[in-house]
Amino acid sequence: MKNKLTIHFFSVFFLLFCLNSVAQPSTGSSRQMLLRDEGLSKLNYVDLAHPERNYYVSVPAGRDLQLVGQGRVMLGTGKGYEERDIKTGAKVAELTTFDGTIAARRLRNGHIMLVGLNWQGKKGIVLLELDQNQAIQRTINYPDFNYVRLVRETVDGNFLLTSNDRVFEGKPDGSIVWQAQLTKQEKAQHAWQAQRLGNGSTLVSGGYSANFQRFDQKGAFVDSLSGPPAVNPHFFAGFQILKNGNWVVANWQGHGSDHGASGTQILEYTPAGKLVWSWKQDPKQQSSIQGVLVLDGLDLNRLHVEDAQGRLVSN
Questions:
Q1: Most buried of the four, 31, 76, 87, 123, by CB within 10 Å?
Q2: Cα–Cα distance for residue pair 6/62, rounded to 1 Å
Q3: What was the pLDDT predicted at 9?
Q4: Which of 202, 191, 137, 199 has the alpha carbon at shortest distance from 164?
Q5: What is the pTM of this model?
Q6: C-beta separation of 255 from 39 below 8 A
Q7: Residue 14 pLDDT > 90, yes or no?
Q8: pLDDT for the residue 18
Q9: What pLDDT, on a 0 to 100 scale, did the predictor assign at position 96?
Q10: 34-314, which class in CATH?
Q11: Residue-wise DSSP of the chain
Q12: Which of 27, 79, 29, 68 is nearest to 49 (CA)?
């Protein structure tokens, strides 16, 4: 009987320990990150435990960054995309024949999706799917929108897109199956990124609304989170959902090279809205961070996309 009670006690203790470990945010003290600094137009590699490995390399202007396998990161450019070696920042591949590209994303099938506006002879948002030979396989058009930033492929094969103060889900045939209107409309929001969550709601980084906004399956506003004022929320841009469920976002501070001392530009929130970790940029190295990828625990040799929970995982 005593042995059974002892075993039961340790089993309960171990279970509570595991649950507590899952619930806790990572401390971030040894994090490795890729950052896209829009203000200086640079790709940064930041290793908090080994700063001697850090680099800051110039890249073309553009939007988004993604782990695409083979130790590479892909960056959207104004003419297509570049792929850079994660360890060194060296350019290892590029596409420069699609002038007018706004963003680029690799799909689950390995093809590239380019995003444009009033582009390729079509009005509104245009998506071009390119195969491994850079040949166009699909052209998808959403003509009723006049602004676009990033695209995310859903697990169902649809596409979440941000369009200023709106976010919508479009099908490959060009039809719209879901959309929502951002709140806080003092000025154009320039909403940046949208991600579908496991409960069917959609998370949006609200751009100049300087917050995250959540919407339900019918497109109704659920809640928002931001702050505190000490981090100077200015423009919530690219974000990543970590394996622990937390959200890491780039708090962009403005165009130009002189914003390095402004705000705290990397923020980690729990889904309940608590700021549990942040990283203050080095004003000597960064100006205004637009995109972030936390690399810890990820297989850099694999393509990464978002799963049904919205978390960034290997494909």
A1: 76
A2: 60
A3: 40
A4: 191
A5: 0.90
A6: yes
A7: no
A8: 38
A9: 98
A10: mainly beta
A11: -HHHHHHHHHHHHHHHHHHHHHHSPP--TT-EEEEEETTTTEEEEEESS-GGG-EEEE--S---EEEEETTEEEEEETTEEEEEETTT--EEEEE---TT--EEEE-TTS-EEEEEEEETTEEEEEEEEE-TTS-EEEEEEETT-S----EEE-TTS-EEEEETTEEEEE-TTS-EEEEEE-S--SS-----EEEE-TTS-EEEE-BTT-SEEEE-TTS-EEEEE---GGG---EEEEEEE-TTS-EEEEEE--SSS--TTSS--EEEE-TTS-EEEEE---TTT-S-EEEEEE-TT--TTSBEEE-TTSBEEE-
A12: 29
* C-alpha–C-alpha distance, residues 194 and 6, integer Å: 49
Structure tokens at 241: 């959902």
d(CA 98, CA 8): 63
Q: Exposed, middle or buried, 8 (CB in 10 Å: 0-12/13-18/19+)?
A: exposed
Tokens of 151: 């695209």
- What angle (nearest 5°) sits at the alpha carbon of residue 69, between those of residues 63 and 72? 55
Strand partners, 136: 130
Quick one: 102 exposed, middle or buried, by C-beta within 10 A (0-12, 13-18, 19+)?
Answer: buried
| C-alpha distances out from residue 3 to 6, 17, 197, Å | 5, 21, 44
Residue extents of the structural domains in the chain? 34-314
The average pLDDT across 86-111 equals 98
